[in-house]
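tool_log.txt
---
The assistant was asked to compare two proteins side by side. It first ran the structure predictor on the initial sequence, then on the second. Raw inputs and outputs are pasted verbatim so the downstream comparison step can read them without reformatting.
(1)
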Amino acid sequence: MFFGLNAIECYFAILVLFSAMFLIVPRRFCWIQIVIAVVLFSVLAYHLEPNQSDDLSRYFTQLDYLREYGYEYFRRCIDDNVNGSNWGTFRVCGYYFYFMSKFPMNNWMPAITVFIGYGLSFSTIYKAANKFSVSRLYLYLACLFFLSTYWYYDIYSGIRNGLAFAVVTACAYEHLIERRFIPLCYVGYILASLMHSTGVMLVVLVLVAEFTVFVNGKYINYLFIFGLIGGGTIMSYLSARSSNDFIDSVAERASSHQAGTGLYTDTNFLVNIAVMVAAAVIIYFFYVFILENNDGLLLKRFYSFSTFVIYFMIGCLYSPLIFMRLARWVIPVVGAMFLSIGLQSKKDFIENNDLSYVKFFAPTKLVMRVNLQVFVTVFIVIFSIVHLWYSLTGSSLIWMHFPEEVEDFIYEY
């Protein structure tokens, strides 16, 4: 325990500290509490103990082997697929594990993974807020949405998926909005795809957004509802006509997801659906204000990418693993970005226009949003708070514990 607090109480204390600092730190220094939060989340991850059923427990065993037998064992994992590592195909994953084995303690891997995942996600949200001159309050509300909907324990225990998605999302921001470091962004896409197979599908969505920017996105959105089926069919076709291990592995994963397992009705899955709906409301409601403030062109590619993700998720409702991964690691960042920019654009629009004139002469969709803007803002804030409560009491966070808590943890759960 730290200062008499258990693991979940430490997590909540970080959130309280983060929120308190937003009240006293000026806007231009808001990066300070973000850096502090990322570091504290990483320190917390270092001191946690994974459960026996977590992937991380298996990864710790791999790290022990790598540490004991060295590079020779690592080469066997690549060449002979020892212990089913599949590092011969996903080599970035293999090298990431090999690098982590050089640290004296296994706990460094989840700590560094959390640092990278939260660091990239927060950095994306903060850079977007700076680019569009978002106020301190709206930046905080965006961070609240992100922190309440991003699944901390899942990136801690799963490592590969969350890391791959964080890299692709951060690269997508630089690529589609900032329009800089594009060659490095493509390197990031390749690294993420070679970290975990699910990174490939997110990269495809980014590339479609890039190359169809002047195409009517509405029809592409509809196509992405069937994206999993179509993508699985294409990958199966390519796999049958090639001998490439990477294509074969992606095709195998796509086929397994394509088969589906039925529509889940457990609480966690329904909550993830609610997060997707909340993000869709944020994007579609506030994007009209963003367009009115002439920022729409800057966001057009990323807006297309975000809507592609949502429609693709609709098509993945019967493949819950993909759906939940997107809802837990991509949607929180995308939703937070559009929430901060949208709230600021809404405020600027209302301050710069005569609302009585707008309500009589503006397009219907804009008038409707002006009339509903207070209700939608309050709804999103309440949703973030309620989801935060759920995260602390019903999500995977309840499995989080320190080593010395293990006896009480087993007794309670």
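(2)
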Amino acid sequence: MKGKKKIFLSVIIAVSIIFVAAMFVFALQNGRRVTGYNQSYLADNTLKAAQTIDENLSGGFTNIRLISQLVSGSLDKP
């Protein structure tokens, strides 16, 4: 009877160690995966923000150029 209890206890300990190791590996891989997704998300958002800023600055430049042409055409020459 004692031999069966020792075997059962050994099996329980082995299964527990395997379970803890599996959870550790899962957590490690999941952390790496989430980090990869976050880096990709950050890169995409940074690119989109840069494109938006570029479009706004280009539009502003165009507006300034058109206004300067309008004003220079309406000025009386001395």
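---
observation on (2): The mean pLDDT is 91. The longest helix spans residues 2-74.
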